[in-house]
């Protein structure tokens, strides 16, 4: 996908990776609508960048109505619809075995990291189908979406789930102009990283922010990628995680192809895609 003159929606764009990506896309001529739960951070960022090609949308990503409003906000601001959606917003474990205060059946980590991500992906796919246009979705997992995290099991579980979501939508949409990919970076120096995690990160090595951003740009610009997971590790650089590792996985994918093609045809008809 060409970045220049496109419209990018970034969930979690007021700090860390999201802010760095927003700035990189603006530098390349994109229009950016970025969200965040902190009104103060969003307004401060708007004051610092001072461009009509970027707008802040105050949004708790778990608020479905606020997510839906992003698309109309983008159209009003830029006179055209969203071309790409990048989901970055995420949190660490909101409780644990000894601080088990989330007793109402919901866990904030799961709500933010995966439930809201599923909603963001659904809204984006529905939007691209209605518009009948090419679309790009990038989800953000973590190195802990590929490995276990004994001190952050909910975080790791949610990041594993994001990879499953990405691969599944990639398979479903491979016959369309809609691409869904995922980035899984190792440790980056952001406000999310604190305490004991910093010790681990220091031992393994940090990833430069610019390397991480190059990963997002690659997933945006390479139209040949769909359902792919791009991991970024210190020392190893970027790696597209292999797909179809064994005969069983290949066979399973082949058997689902006909039903997948039927489902895509049904979706196009439902959303009146000509």
Question: Could you explain how this protein is built, in words?
Answer:
By secondary structure, this protein is α/β, with parallel strands linked by helices. It folds into two domains: 7-243, NAD(P)-binding Rossmann-like Domain (Rossmann fold, 3-Layer(aba) Sandwich), CATH 3.40.50.720; 246-274, no CATH class. It contains eight helices and eight strands; from the N terminus they run βαβαβαβαβαβααββα. α1 (16-27) packs across α7 (209-221). It comes from Hesseltinella vesiculosa. This is NAD(P)-binding protein. Belongs to the short-chain dehydrogenases/reductases (SDR) family. It holds the Pfam family adh_short.
Number of strands: 8
At the fourth CATH level, what is the homologous superfamily of the largest domain?
NAD(P)-binding Rossmann-like Domain
CATH class of the largest domain: Alpha Beta
Uncertain spans = none
Cα separation of the termini: 21 Å
Largest sheet, in brief, is: 8 strands, mixed
Pfam family, one: adh_short
Family: Belongs to the short-chain dehydrogenases/reductases (SDR) family.
Protein name: NAD(P)-binding protein
Organism: Hesseltinella vesiculosa
């Amino acid at each position: 996908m060409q970045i220049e003159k496109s419209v990018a929606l970034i969930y979690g764009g007021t700090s860390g990776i999201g802010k760095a990506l927003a700035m990189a896309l603006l530098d390349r001529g994109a229009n950016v609508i970025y969200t965040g739960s902190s009104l103060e951070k969003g307004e401060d960022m708007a004051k610092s960048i001072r461009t009509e090609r970027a707008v802040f949308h105050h949004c708790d990503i778990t608020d479905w109505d606020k997510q839906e409003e992003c698309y109309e906000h983008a159209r009003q601001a830029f006179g055209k619809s969203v071309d790409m959606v990048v989901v970055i917003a995420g949190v660490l474990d909101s409780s644990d075995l000894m601080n088990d205060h989330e007793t109402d059946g919901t866990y904030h980590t799961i709500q933010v990291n995966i439930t809201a991500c599923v909603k963001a992906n659904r809204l984006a796919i529905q939007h691209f189908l209605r518009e009948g246009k090419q679309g790009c979705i990038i989800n953000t997992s973590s190195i802990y979406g590929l490995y276990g995290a004994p001190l952050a099991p909910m975080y790791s579980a949610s990041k594993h789930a994001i990879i499953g979501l990405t691969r599944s939508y990639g398979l479903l949409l491979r016959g369309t102009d809609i691409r869904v990919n995922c980035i899984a970076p190792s440790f980056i120096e952001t406000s999310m990283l604190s305490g004991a995690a910093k010790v681990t990160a220091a031992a393994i090595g940090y990833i430069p922010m610019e390397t991480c951003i190059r990963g997002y740009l690659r997933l945006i610009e390479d139209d040949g990628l769909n359902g792919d997971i791009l991991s970024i590790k210190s020392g190893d650089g970027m790696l597209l995680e292999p797909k179809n590792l064994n005969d069983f996985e290949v066979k399973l994918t082949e058997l689902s192809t006909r039903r997948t093609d039927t489902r895509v045809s049904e979706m196009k008809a439902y959303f009146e895609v000509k």
